[in-house]
Write a structure and sequence with these properties.
The chain is mostly beta strands and about 475 residues long. It has 3 domains: about 1-15 and about 370-473, Immunoglobulin-like (Sandwich); about 25-130 and about 250-365, no CATH class; about 135-240, Jelly Rolls (Sandwich), CATH 2.60.120. Helices cover about 5% and strands about 40% of the residues. The protein contains 4 helices and 36 strands. An 8-stranded antiparallel β-sheet has the order 1-2-3-23-22-24-20-21, with helices on one face. Strands 4-27-5-25-26 form a 5-stranded antiparallel β-sheet, covered by helices on one side. The chain has a 5-stranded antiparallel β-sheet with strand order 7-6-19-8-9, with no helix packed on it. The N and C termini lie close together (about 5 Å).
Length: about 475
């Protein structure tokens, strides 16, 4: 495939360019530099590619952790390392408690209940869909039927919350009653179970949920209905989430709002509970969408930086449509936006460091396209100038143990600090300071620190049109 990049000649704006590099059969990485300016990192997952999977993952594998400074959250890099993923990006919004705000289903197991009116992305083998999910659940006991407010979230006043082993802990802002049940089977988005009460814990704000247990946490009015619940009692537990075909949808990640629907821009941010500033101001963004063929695009846009201003929701919708998406939704953005490739954070998180998040999207492949450096061979090194000036550019290469340049189609570049680098290995100085260049290639990593010095005087650079050709399958 040959990809052409359009560019415009403007003062101090990065040249528009597109690079695509094959990570594994069916998994293609893409970097795009667009007017705005925008730095876009994305991955395309080709439908039904053998050995390739897309999975949602909770931070640290649980919703909550005890005595955790981040309320159980972790960075995208930490999730990527823990799961050895090929690509990892941030996913849903989250409150201070650290649980995903919207729906999350992992391999058929309901981990977080849908948030009413918020867009979600569902997928399974050969299937993907963007849409709205509804949540309904209840428990019945001795003629009493009580609605369940949500799954794996903090219990508020006059609520009943169902907590599964994925919660780690059942929590409540105020002391609550917790009915600990014997786990019969994993909780799915739609199903019926008859668990028995193992024990009752009164007046506690937190109860651990063991791997063989469920915990019903309730406060206020529901407590009056469940007063006579005793150890050994059997209850009838039901869930009934609607909005997708659960025979095909095995995984769900949520966010909002919609960006593209049926091939057209569709951004109902007010209806989904977002304000004008969130939608119309430029911010770092993360999104997921599907093409007409059923391929999945996962996209991040850097923002709040001189080399990438960020995007409005309408601009993000344009990006997704340009990539061929017929349906797409927005995910959490801002300081959460992070794109990790085989352990290397490719993008530039807007806060300078990664934010701990609640859940992530991971791409796995059992077949990696790249050759590996021979075992025992010396580590590759980055070759390039030790100093560049603000507004100027320099070319960097990755050198193997024989002194030969590693083909750039196999090298993935990242830079943090006072400069940025594209996927051709071309660095551009942005401000005085230092820049840490990092690469990933053939299963190895390398890094180099470069000084960015003050320019000698004002300089206007007219940028020529550039065409970058990188062969991919």
């Amino acid at each position: 495939m040959l990809l052409a990049a359009l560019a415009i000649a403007v003062q101090e704006q990065a040249p528009a360019g597109v690079w695509e590099k094959l990570l594994a059969p069916g998994v293609t990485y893409r970097m795009e530099v667009a007017p705005g300016p925008l730095l876009i990192n994305a991955v395309r997952v080709t439908k039904e590619t053998e050995g390739v999977s897309l999975v949602g993952e909770l931070a640290n594998g649980k919703v909550y952790e005890s005595n955790s400074a981040t309320q159980g959250r972790e960075t995208v890099s930490a999730t990527a390392a823990r799961k050895a993923a090929l690509v990892t990006v941030n996913a849903d919004f989250f409150p201070f408690t650290g649980d995903p705000l919207g729906a999350m289903v992992r391999e058929g197991e309901l981990l977080s209940s849908p948030q009413s009116g918020r867009a979600a992305f569902c997928w399974g083998k050969g299937f993907s869909q963007a849409g709205y999910l509804t949540f309904a659940a209840s428990l019945s006991f001795e003629g009493q039927n009580v609605a369940i407010f949500g799954v794996n979230q903090e219990c508020g006043e006059n609520m009943v919350v169902l907590n599964t082993p994925a919660a780690g802990f059942a929590i409540s802002r105020e002391p609550a009653t917790h009915a600990v049940l014997v786990l019969v089977d994993k909780i799915t988005p739609s199903g019926q179970w008859k668990p028995r009460v193992r024990r009752i814990v009164e007046n506690s704000t937190s109860v651990q949920v063991n791997d063989d247990e469920l915990v019903l946490t309730f406060r206020g009015t529901p407590k009056e209905k469940l007063t006579f619940l005793n150890v050994g009692d059997e209850i009838d537990l039901r869930t009934d989430c609607k909005g997708t075909d659960w025979k095909n949808a095995r995984d769900v990640i949520a966010g909002g709002p919609f960006l593209v629907k049926d091939g057209k821009a569709f951004v109902p941010y007010v209806a989904e509970g977002f304000v004008d500033g969130f939608a119309k101001n430029k911010h770092p963004r993360t999104a997921i969408g599907r093409t007409r063929e059923g391929d999945v695009w996962i996209v991040t846009v850097d923002g709040r930086q001189t080399m990438s201003a960020g995007a409005t929701l309408s601009e993000l919708a344009d990006v997704m449509m340009r990539l061929g998406c017929t349906d797409a939704i927005n995910l959490d953005g801002g300081g959460s936006t992070t794109f990790n490739l085989s352990g290397l954070t490719i993008n530039r998180p807007s806060e300078g460091t990664e934010r701990a998040i609640a859940n992530a999207l991971l791409v796995f492949s059992s077949s990696v396209t790249q050759l590996a450096f021979p075992v025992g061979e010396a580590e590759p090194v980055i070759a390039g100038p030790a100093t560049i000036k603000v507004g100027e550019k320099a070319v960097f290469r990755l050198i193997d143990s024989t002194g030969e340049s590693v083909p750039n189609s196999e090298v993935f570049w990242s830079a943090k600090g006072a400069a940025w680098i594209d996927q051709a290995g071309v660095m551009r100085g942005a401000s005085e300071g230092t820049c840490r260049v990092q690469v990933y290639a053939r299963g190895r990593s390398a890094s180099l620190t470069v000084t960015v010095a003050k320019a000698q005087g004002p300089k206007v650079t007219l940028l020529r049109n550039e065409t970058i050709r990188t062969p991919v399958l």
